[in-house]
Amino acid sequence: MDCSHEEETVATFRARNNGGDEGKRVLAGALVRVSQCYVETRRSAEGLAAATEAVTILEHLDLRAKGKPVLARAYDCLATAYAVTGRPAEAATAAEQSLATWREVAAANPTFRLELAAAMRGLAAKRRRAGHYADALAIFEEAVTVLRAYASDPDFSYLLTDVLEELPDYQSLASLPDKLVLAPDEVLARHPLQADTSPEPAIWHLYDGNRLVAELSMAFIDQPWFYATFEPTDEFAAWRDTFAELSHPDDPNFDPTVPGWAPALDRINHTLTLYAPNGFAVEEFLMYLDDDDFAQWRWHAEFINWRD
User: Fold this and answer.
1) For the chain, what is the radius of gyration of the CA atoms?
2) Beta bridge partners of 215
3) What is the reported pLDDT for 259?
4) What is the pairing mode between strands 225-232 and 211-222?
5) Using CA atoms in the order 259, 261, 267, 268, what is the torsion angle rounded to 10 degrees?
């Protein structure tokens, strides 16, 4: 899959754009589609740039009802692009903007209620992965309420079935305290980012709240897996048995697409946070340790939909 068709469409609408609002709106729509293609083909930085341009164009237009759904989809796209580039805080903000816009759109035109429910589910998932469990449940329950209207609709009743199956997971987490996630600036104050020219390996950091559990010195990457030397602190002693419960990816029983596959994985993600070298917290991650001194992991942006 390549994005040549979407790129040609963007180029065409750029050439045709005479500065009018309609031309800008159409160009923004094309940018949303090319951004989606870039993200799907792992051209994440280009996807983020296209989504950002689309949102910037649309936010400066006096959008009528016809243009609001395009803005909402642009925010959706921006949220995804931020997520896959390891910027969950910005992804959550874009998802909030998306939901606010879809609320406005659906209030004016109820035919967009399915898009509203999808935006609710998307933001709820981000809230859950960020450790804001009660907030995630409240938003997810709104999606359930919207989708109940489709219980007897043969084309869309499956959506209600899906959310009702997911609801107990959200409910079970709602009583947990919110997970502490450090801001990127705070992480970098503790662990300054190395220069690109540094011969030293990039370092990731695993935290339990504000306590360092381990440093991970990058060895190599074999997408979607990352490999690193695992250097635990004394805090890791409380987690050693939990990590030992995870089966190796080569194990025939390994299947992270099955909810509840490993309660240990849930305990890890509900409490621990993995920070990339740039200080940003990744979303959910799966990490396997080999004799406590070598780690391999993949994180949510590299295996989207393994849980949601």
Assistant:
1) 21
2) 205, 231
3) 55
4) antiparallel
5) -100
Most confident by average pLDDT, 90-94, 215-219, 301-305: 215-219
How confident is the model at residue 87, as a pLDDT? Answer: 78
Nearest to 240 by CA among 209, 206, 210: 206
Q: Rounded distance, CA 128 to CA 137, Å? A: 8
CATH label of the domain that carries residue 23: 1.25.40.10
Spatial CB neighbours of 175, under 8 Å, sequence gap ≥ 6: 133
The dihedral sign for the CA sequence 265, 134, 76, 259:
positive
State phi, psi for 74 to the nearest 5 degrees: -65, -40
Range of the domain at 247: 184-302
Mean pLDDT, all residues of the chain: 87
Assess if residue 308 is contained within a domain: no
Q: Is residue 94 part of a domain?
A: yes
256 plus 146 within the same structural domain: no
pTM for the model: 0.73
